[in-house]
Amino acid sequence: MSTVKKSGLGRGFDALIPQDFDKSLILEDHERIEKIALNDLEPNPDQPRQHFDAAALEQLSGSIGQYGLLQPLVVTPGKAGKYFIIAGERRWRAANMAGLKKVPAIVRSTKDLERLEIAIVENVQRVDLSPLEQAFSIEKLHQQFNMTYESIAKRLGRAPSTVNNTVRLLQLPDAARGALHDKKITEGHARAILALKELPEKQSDLLKQILAGDWSVRQAERYVTSIKDGFKAVKATEKRMQTQTPETKRLSKKLGTTVSIKRTAKGGKLEIAFASDEQLKKVLHILGD
User: Fold this and answer.
1) CATH number belonging to domain 10-108
2) 47, 107, 133, 269 — which has fewest CB within 10 A?
3) What are the tens digits of pLDDT across the range 265-287?
4) What does pTM read for this prediction?
């Protein structure tokens, strides 16, 4: 039996297939992909992405020069025979660097794009959409329809900070993103993990602690506070997170109720529980009020 040897195309080949390309922008098979001269293509002036990594462009340019451009651009008609690039400006720049004269492109009308944009906005507004699904849809509007997060927030009737926080979920490590997708952690847990993005190892530790110990969001936040306060060692962090200490236990015994510590970013607070107004009066009496 003969075996087929896999081609060693490596990362260069992977670079030809953009990870952020929206397949919903592609027309049906029976509709035509045109070859358009690079000189007739112009970047959209409203493109939110202003910076393109030079090294990544160089790598993509080399791949395009060797294998050609496999994924078509999506463009819309402009003036004087020109076209605005809706999706694929990075590939257009790399094709220029590679010396190509023409590139494959799908021409979408303004009405086509408006219909797609409305469909995505409606999708984000669905009540049954998960936080990650919302984040992906919002980022699609931002990247592929040249909408700012502020304009997206207005379309959705949400605060800009809410939209930005939702999109930040895409920055989660793969394991945490998977846990959020599978509903093993909540959005609140995810935000706590995101707060440690400069410390990937601690993000992993926090996720493990949440899953293994069934931590609440408050516990996860206290962990983050402890780490940021410099308690990097596991034992020191755990001690910092404790709500009960020898001191609180002595005070609990004296007052006849639960006393606990809640750490915050700066210091913390002492919480004294009471079950009734009578118990509150008793606690206040003991404390000398």
Assistant:
1) 3.90.1530.10
2) 269
3) 556 677 888 888 888 888 788 77
4) 0.50
